[in-house]
Amino acid sequence: MILAMDIKELTRAEEQVMQELWKLQKAFVKEIIEQMDEPKPAYNTVSTIIRILETKGFVGHESFGKSHRYFPKISKDEYKDFATGKLLSGYFDNSPQNMLSFFVQERKLSLKDADALFKLLEKAKKK
């Protein structure tokens, strides 16, 4: 398991590539590009981003001659935990209540969303 302090923040472009790799689990650069929205980035751009992600410890690869098939070394859940913690500490003073209040007031949670949250809280209470 990777510690949160070992995880580095992703740039927007890196995160886009990781989102596709998390879905695919193992992929060559061309397969990642095929999954991306239009306009598709250039092969060299995605290849460079993948190499940066390898340097940051997010991605590993298997060699097939001169080709490489890439795979995530950090799970989406591990990165989600890191990013949420960063958001919570950086913008909401480490207060889940402040964060939830923001979403209720600014993002206008629907009654359906609020009901689902209450059910989660009730379930957590019972544990």
UniProtKB/TrEMBL annotation:
Gene3D superfamilies: Penicillinase repressor domain (1.10.4040.10), Winged helix-like DNA-binding domain superfamily/Winged helix DNA-binding domain (1.10.10.10)
Keywords: DNA-binding, Transcription, Transcription regulation
Keyword hit for Transcription regulation: yes
Matching InterPro entries: BlaI_family, WH-like_DNA-bd_sf, WH_DNA-bd_sf
Ranges in coiled-coil conformation: none
Signal peptide: none
SUPFAM superfamilies attached to this UniProt entry: Winged helix' DNA-binding domain
Similarity comment: family membership: Belongs to the BlaI transcriptional regulatory family.
Name this protein carries in UniProt: BlaI/MecI/CopY family transcriptional regulator
Source species of the chain: Olivibacter ginsenosidimutans
Lineage: Bacteria, Pseudomonadati, Bacteroidota, Sphingobacteriia, Sphingobacteriales
